[in-house]
Structure formats: structure tokens, C-alpha cells
Amino acid sequence: MVKTYAYGFPKLGKQREFKRLIEGFWAQKVTEEELREGIKELGQKREETYRKYVDAFPQGEMTLYDPMLDTALLFGVYKANSLEEYFELCRGKNALEMTKWFNTNYHYLVPDFEGREPAFKVCEPVWNRHEGATENVHIIAPFTFLKLSKGLPEGSFEGALKELTKALVDYVNSKGFKSVHLEDPALVMELSEEEWKALVEAYSLLSEVKGEVNLFTYYDSVDRLELLFELPVNGIGVDLVHDRGENLEQLKKIDPRGKKLFAGVVDGRNVWRNDLFKTAEVLRELSEKFDVVITNAAPLFHLPVSLEGATLPKELLQKVAFAEEKLKEIKLLAEILEGKEEEAREWVKGINNKFGEIKAVRERVSALKEEDFVRKPSYKERVKKQQEVLNLPLFPTTTIGSFPQTEEVRRVRLLYRKGKLDKESYETFIRGEIAKAIQIQEELGLDIFVHGEFERTDMVEFFAEKMKGIATTGNGWVISYGTRCYRPPIIYGDVERDGVMTVPEIAFAQSLTDKPVKGMLTGPVTIIAWSFVREDIPISEVAYQIALALKDEIRDYEEAGIKIVQIDEPAIREKAPIKKRNWKEYFDWAIKSFRLCHSSVKPETQIHTHMCYSEFGEIMEYILEMDFDVISIEASRSKGDIIEAFEKVNFDRQIGLGVWDIHSPYVPSAEEMKEIVERALRVIPKENFWINPDCGLKTRRWEEVIPALRNLVKLAGELRKETN
Ligand code: MET
Ligand SMILES: [Zn+2]
After folding, report:
1. What is the distance between the alpha carbons of residues 314 and 289, in angstroms, rounded to a whole number?
2. pLDDT confidence of residue 615
3. DSSP, residue by residue, 555-568
4. For residue 2, is pLDDT > 70?
5. How high is the pLDDT of residue 637?
6. What's the pLDDT score for residue 469?
7. Which residues hold L-methionine (predicted)?
8. Within 6 Å (CB) of ligand 1, which residues are found?
9. 520 forms bridges with which residues in the sheet?
10. Residue 28, phi-psi category: left (phi > 0), alpha (psi -120 to 50), beta (remainder)
């Protein structure tokens, strides 16, 4: 009988209980006892869900914030003597840095060794996620833990890996765990010979573990899969969905050496139902050689908890599966292999329906020619025309788009969305907010205005609601970090505008001022990165469809007299494949989709883009090809590096390097902002330099925004004087 296994089920809870408990504790509305009790219950509910569908699953997966932090605490990299101290590390003044977890939209806390020689010591953490666990105990594997940490002294990786593996072995043996579930997704990265060698050497120590060890990889293929089968472990988990066929190819040649193969065949990252009978074929073939356990490919926490209560059209409901339904698919696969096909046949009945097809959109994309992706005239020529129209001073000042989403804004928007406020009153309210924002910008003396994005809940969901072919889920919440949730929309069909999306608000804002107001759009790559995307057509086509919808919107902006358009692409780096050898293919469509948005604008229309939350140094060459006129970029973390990167590529466009880190309530002085500018001006000519915050201001309060922007405008004034 084929065995089944699953891991990474969302910790959030159907009613977002996780969020309520933790945030309640922060607000001192939930006591520590209630928190511990509540989390325990939530953990039990998860286990019950697993048990309904699969034979086995990890224990001790539950965290109060992030598993990387839990691992760091377990091995003594940090100390927390109370839950307050634990959460200090997550969100306090000296919190760990947060960064994207591989190419997903989940952010983890980055352990930092700060250049110190690491020493690991098993600690009894204040939050012990392994309490009561005995089997398949969930731990982030040493290789992934160290690979994703920072600040290890040069040359110490190999030693640290051995030390940490030793500590792990001691821990597992001292607790007497029957088996452990080691998560090692970093093994799918492009690793050097030395790294593979270090891995094999360090993990040879796993032979001392008394219980069973299973090692899980996911998100891509493992380049040297055969090496994993030589390790002293009992089972290897591989991703057979996101591996471009590379894992499967290797498995054909690999000697199983008595190991179990955890075959990840049910997608943990996307919502589409599994083509069960096709998958069963693959499993059958693998079973001839391997002792196969059916499992998910990638942890399931990238998906909403369950379809129960989802408000989706029924044709779409027939095609999708959220986390709980993915568990069911694992079970159905096992049934097929045992000859029980009935329920599985029912399950896949609708998966290929053509819901959402719009022929005209398909034709429009297939008619695209190379020149449709090229803007004319060249930057050099058009910049002159733009300057004639805009007549901007040196160091133009602007903001990134959103202004504070106050309690009131959120309350009124919610009333409207729940149908408790009529459209007209809602629109009047939004206009009122826009008018206030324009007034404030006027008083501050900024050069380029924004309307404030008060009508937008989320920069992707807002557009999803305005486009045909994209569904929003109502309650399909997914954690993006800590307790922060978002609802990824589902791109299921051909995408087209359903009338204008943003023009009325922008045009209204423009009608109130003589200063240019920026049209504000979310770019195709970001819409794709933060949604679940259809897989029945190439992703490049999906991107071009979205680009064409945005292109139509930009044409309407121009007709409404808007002179500057900003197309935000904050997710462009995160969406890049884990392996660099796959970058070219990705950036090809990513860049072309951006260019398609703006290729037919008038020369005098100035195109901006905005990016944030990533390391841009290594993608600088690609960024340049997007052919924008101005880029604003968040760089609070690595100002130095990014400036160097600009120098290397000979950056000839205008740039606004964020001078205010908007992730903190701290209001920087003009002098502090100036430091950043001065460093940057050594590399970027002053004619090309804009002054702006790091990112949008929606999470800030007006009490911080007004003084900070006043300082920002003051700084621009001083810089102008100095250059005169
Ligand atoms: C994550 S990037 C955000 C850009 C958006 N225009 C804003 O200002 O909020
Ligand atoms: Zn941003």
C-alpha cells in the first residue's frame, strides 16, 4: 500500500485565529497563558486536518512568528528569556532583518552572526515548538539555516555547518525523537563544489542520529540529487512540480540505496487542481524502483487554508484546490494507485474547462510584433521634450504613491465593500481624502504629486478587481510574514480591463492642482508575483495580456492630460528563478511586459517605475532594459552596494534613491537624508537625481509623514542652493 505524507500546512487557521492570538498578545488583550493555550489548540486542529487525509506529517511545525527564528533560538544564536523578548527579535527596535524566502512572497527573519565565529549550543527556548513531539519532528536543516543567515565570518561556513549538524544530532538524540523532518530547500540553489563537499561531510554526522531522518528539498530541482541519496538518511523529499523535469530525469538514473522517496507531486504553491491520473502514471513508474511516499511539492503554507467559504464562480471552483484540498489530492492519488478511481475522476472533471476565455485578447497578444515592445524615440531625445513640458527644478521631490491609510479610510472602505455604504457616498469620501492630500502636498511644496491611493486595499488586489480574468477570493488569506496576511487573487482567464481602472481618481487629483500628478499602476510582473497564475498558457502571455490592459489605461491617462505615469514593479527581483541559469528566460518576458505597457506613449510622457525590498545589485543590467525614464528605489538596507551597482552598469536614467526609510516611525532630519544623497551624488549626476522616500507611505501616520516630507523638501532646497 502506498504511503502518504504532507507538510507545511498553513498555521493561520480558518478564521485567522493565529493572527488574532498573536496580535492580541501584542496589544495585551490576550494573556500569555491564553496565547500558549490558543496556539496549542490551533496546532492540534492542524494535526487533525492532516490526519483526515494522510498517513504521516511533521510535528512541531507551529511557530509564533517564523521557523528560522525558532531554529536560531534553539541552537543558541539568539536568546529570548520571555515571549516579550522573543517578539522583540521579530518586530522590536533591534528586530532581525526580514527578507524574501527563496522566490516566494513569504519573508523570513534573517539570523545574523555579525562577523562572529559561530558557536551552537542547544537551548530550551521560551517557546518550545517541539513540546510533546516525537515523530517527524520539524527542524530547518543546518545547510539551509546557515545558507540563509548572514554575517558568518569569511571561510567559516564549512566549520559552522559541521558544528550545527553536531548540535542537531545531540538535540535529536537527547530528546529521543523517533524521526525528524529536516527542511533543506537551500539544496535547490546553484551550489559550488565546495558547498557540496561541505554538505556531504557535515551531513555524514547524521549517521549518529538514533531515529529516522528524512530530508526535504523543494521549490526547484537539486543539481546533485545523487549525492543526497548517498547521505546517511532514511528518505529524500523532492519537488517534482517545480523542477523543470530535472529531478525526474535524475531519479531515473539514481540508485535508491534503500531510501524512501518522498515524491512531491501535489503543488504547494499554486491553486490548480492536480491532473491526478497523469500524476499517478509518474508515481507508478517511480514505484518500480523506489519506495515511494506521495507528498506535496513545496510546503502548503503558500495557499489559503481551505476552499470552504471561498466566494469563487463555480466554473473556477471546479479547477482549484487550497491547502486542505491539496491534502485530499494526496489521498486521492494513493487511492488511484490502489485501483480506487471513482472519487478522483469526479475531482478532475472540470479542470480543463475554458472558463474565462476571451478570444479577442488572445488574438491581440498573438498579433504582437517585436516593435510593439520598443519605445521611440530614445531616452536621450524624449527626456528633452519631457523637461520642456514638466519644467522641473534640480532634485525634483515626489512620493511613491500611497499616503496614510488612516483608521477612518479603512473603516469607510470596509463599509462600502460590505455594501453598507452606497457608491456615491464612498466616492465622495475618497475625493475628499484626495483633495486633502493634494492640499498637503501643495503646502509642503513637493514638485510631483500623487493622489494617495486611498481607494486601494492592496496594490495587486485593487487591479485584480478591475480586470476580467482575475478573481479575488474574499477569504483566501495567506501569511506573507509574521502575522501579516494578504489575499492573492487568482488569474484564471484571459485578462482585460473592465473599463477604466484608475483614471477618474487620478484625473480628479490633477484637476485640483497645477503640479503634475502621477498616474499610478501596478506592473504586470508584480500582479503575477502576488497572485496565483494560470498554467494553461505560457506565463509570458499572461504578462502581455496584463501589460496590454495597463497600456490601455495609460492611453486614457494621456487623454486625461496626465503627464507622468508610474508603473510599480516591487516584485521583479523576488519573482526571478532560484537558479541563475533560468534568469534569462524570466527576465525576457518580465522586461518585455514592462516595455509593452509604455512602448506607445508620447515622447513627452514621463515613465517612472518603483522597486523595493530586494537586492537589486545583481539585476541592474536587466532593470536598465526596462527603458523607463525615472526609477525610485528602496535602498535603506544596502545604500552603499546599490550605488556601486549603478556605477558599474553606467546608469543613464534618472533615479530617486529613497532618503527616508519608511518602515520605521522615525522622522529623519534633512541632515540625515543628506548623507545618503551625498554618497549617491558621487556616482549619479545631479541632473538625474530625485528626492523621495523609500516606498509608499500607507503604513505611516500623517504625524510622521508631514514633518518627514517637510525635511525632504528642505533638503532639496538646500541642494539646489549649493549647486547654484
Ligand atoms: C510595495 S511598493 C508600493 C508602491 C505603491 N505605489 C505605494 O506607494 O504604496
Ligand atoms: Zn515600494
Report:
1. 41
2. 77
3. HHHHHTT--EEEEE
4. yes
5. 59
6. 98
7. 400-402, 453, 568
8. 400-402, 453, 459, 520, 568, 570, 610, 612, 695-696, 698
9. 566
10. left
Ligand 2 centroid to residue 574 C-alpha, Å: 13
The alpha helices in 254-377, defined as continuous H runs, are: 276-289, 314-317, 323-337, 342-348, 359-366
- Between the CA of 451 and the centroid of ligand 1 the distance, in Å, is 12
Given 130, 138, 608, 663, the catalytic residue: 663
pLDDT tens per residue, range 425-479: 999 999 999 999 999 999 999 999 999 999 998 999 999 999 999 999 989 999 9
Region class of 595: left (phi > 0), else alpha (psi between -120 and 50), else beta: alpha
Closest atom of ligand 1 to 401 CA is 8
Pocket test for ligand 1, best of 98, 105, 107, 400 (most atoms within 8 A of CB): 400
Place of cell 524521526: 179
**Domains contained in the chain, CATH given:** 3-119+126-348 (3.20.20.210), 396-405+443-453+497-723 (3.20.20.210)
Give the separation between CA 10 and CA 296, rounded to whole angstroms: 13
51 neighbors 326 (Cβ within 8 angstroms): no
Query: Residue 638 pLDDT > 60, yes or no?
Result: no
* Reported pTM: 0.96
Annotated binding site for 5-methyltetrahydropteroyltri-L-glutamate: 19, 105, 484-485, 530
Q: How far is the CA of 693 from the centre of ligand 2 (A)?
A: 9
Name which of 192, 188, 197 is nearest 221 in CA terms.
188
Farthest-apart Cα atoms in the chain, separation: 83
**CB 261, CB 228: distance < 8 Å:** no
Whether residue 151 has pLDDT greater than 60: yes
Q: What ranges in 191-271 are assigned the alpha helix state H?
A: 193-203, 225-228, 246-253
Q: What is the pLDDT of residue 639?
A: 60
- Our answer to whether residue 663 is catalytic in this structure is yes
Complex ipTM above 0.85? yes
Q: Which three cell numbers stand for residue 283?
A: 508515481
Ligand sitting nearest the alpha carbon of 463: 1
Q: Give the model confidence (pLDDT) of 233-244 as tens digits.
A: 999 999 999 999
The residue whose CA is least distant from atom 9 of ligand 1 is: 696
Are 566 and 608 contacting, i.e. CB atoms less than 8 angstroms apart? Answer: yes
- pLDDT averaged over every residue in the chain: 96
CA torsion 665-671-675-681 (nearest 10°) is 120
Residue of the CA atom closest to atom 1 of ligand 1 = 570
Q: What's the distance, Cα to Cα, between the start and end of the chain in Å?
A: 81
Stated as kind and residue range, the H or E segment containing 597 is helix 583-598
Burial 95-121 (b: 16+ CB within 10 A, else e): ebebbbbbbbbebbbbbbbeeeebebe
In this prediction, residue 676 carries a pLDDT of 86
Residues placed in the known binding site for L-methionine = 400-402, 453, 568
Helix H, strand E, coil C: the string for 408-426 is HHHHHHHHHHCCCCCHHHH
User: How far does residue 569's CA lie from ligand 2's centre (Å)?
Assistant: 8
Tell me which residue has cell 487542481.
Answer: 273
